[in-house]
Structure formats: structure tokens, C-alpha cells
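[09:14] KT: can someone run the structure on this one? pasting the chain below
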Amino acid sequence: MEPSSNPVRRKSPPTRSVASSANASRTAARRAPSLRSPVLPTRLEGVLLAIYPATLLLGSLFSLLNPRSRNAPYSARLQSHPPADAPSYFALKKNLFNAWFVKIGWFWTTLAFFLFLFMHPSTGPRLSPVLTPRRLQGLVRYAVATLWWVLVTQWFFGPGLVDRTYKLTGGQCELVRSEAGRASIGGAREVFTAAACRLAGGEWKGGHDISGHVFLLVLGSAFLWFEILPVVMRHAGLREERLVMHADGSVKSAEAEVQMVGGKDEADGEEVAQGVSAPVVVAGLSWWMLLMTAAYFHTWFEKFTGLVVAFLGVFTIYFLPRAVPAVRRVVGIPGV
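[09:31] RB: done, C-alpha cells below
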């Protein structure tokens, strides 16, 4: 049998075209916009936020596992260990760091932020009072954070939210020192703040006390971290895409909205240190005092509510604007 004069031609597999298509698909996938919601943190932001509850958990576990802390009596009235039985120097309310750092914590947060705002070249001309768009929006974010701190701890159309929550959950001022103190205020239930109660010679008892220390330390340090994070990442050569929603509903990278500020985004090591050192020191010390607060002060639930209230402020300042263009035009986004 003679072989056919028209042999069947076998087609070689299109390996090159298939490989090209696969590469193109992977490239398109990398370039495709993420389905992550703009109000959700990036991976690094998520790690940063997770440090706070982890710190509270670590401190609480330490207080349970450490023999000195576990065996030391705890006073619910003082919300701490009695001074005579304090298991550590940091368990004393009058320790140097508590008295001169935590008690005036917003002062240190303010000082560190303004040093960064007017010293780092990414916000505008260094050591110059020129108010660039980034500086103006940074000041707006600072004003919102300060307003939240005031409303929670100082004044909310009267007593702050901490004292109002205490009263609403059944707390009152119980005068115990003298009849004269009781007569001076006309009855225990007329005292609306913990400070006024102490001045009248009484004790603040009965309600739920949101931990003001946890609130202040978390809000202040998170505020500083979120302000300097884009600068630190850019200097380290890292990129992590923050997403924003536009008026037409599209979700794009926040980098598309980068402003020209008359400064520069890239800085050498010395310039980065000059602008970022103060926030890093204040935020780092805040973390340490948060750990000490978790270990020696307040109940677990009081610390948890302080964390939640602080996170509400952080979400409003740094994540809500990413999804609401009108808000973003006012408060901006750090580094954009």
C-alpha cells in the first residue's frame, strides 16, 4: 500500500500564544482595581490598628499571669492598685510618665504633629509658615481629632461623653468625707463630673467609666502614625495602594489625587528624621503607657470601650473621607 501523497498536517500547540495570553491575564489582574472597599484599611494600616487591641490583651494577660500583679489588691474605687500595694512603679498614678506625659497627652500630640507639619518637606517649605494645601488639610484633620478629644473627655454641651456615660449607666458622686461637703453641693446627684466630685470630697461610684487613658493614648498615637505613615513608606521605597471613591462611583488609587505643594515628596534621611522623629517618639511612648494602663489600670471592659471610642475618631478622620468625596475635599488624605 502506497503512502498517501497528501499527508495529514499536525498543528503544533500554540504554546507561545497561550503563554502570552496567560502573561497578559496576570498583568491585567495586577492592574485591575482592587475590590477592597475604600473605607477598609490597607494591609499595613490593618496591622497598625491591630497593635492596639493586641496591646490591651497583652497587658491584661500580664496582670493575670504575673504573680505580683495577681496577688496585689485592686481597688475599683481608685481603678488601680492601692499605692501601698502597687506591684510596679508604673502601677502608681503619680508615676512620672503618667503625671507628665499621659495627663497632658494631647499637648505632646499637638507638639509632635506641628513639628512634623512644618519641618517635613513633603508638606511644604521646611520651617516656613506658608500654608500649602497639604498643611491646611492637615490642620483640619488635627482640628477634627482635637474636637473629638474635647467632646469625649472635656465638654459635650456640659460634661464630656465619659462623664455623661458614667451618669447614664447609674454612676453618681457618693460623698463620704463630711456633711459640709454634702451640703456644699446640695446633694450627691447634682455633681456631674468626676473632677467636681473629687473637689467636693466625694467618690465617683456605680457606673461604667470609659477609660480616658486608653482613649487618649490610642487616638493621639494613631493620629500621629496615620499622618507620618505615607512619608515613612515613601522614604523606604514601599507602596501600598489606598483607594478612594469618586463622585461618579468609581474607585481609584488615592495617588491619582496627589497635589503639588511647592515642597517635595522625596526627602533624604536627615530631613525625614527631622520631621518624623518627634511623632515617632510620642507615639512610641504612648504605646508603652497604653501597655502599662492595660496591665495596671481599669477593668477590661472599661479599656475596651476606650479603644472603641478612639477608633470611631480614627475612622471618621482617615477612612470615611476615602468614600465620601465631599468630606475628602475638606480634610484631605495624608500624603496626597
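[09:33] KT: thanks! Residues 78 and 298 are 9 Å apart (CA to CA).
[09:34] RB: yep, looked fine to me
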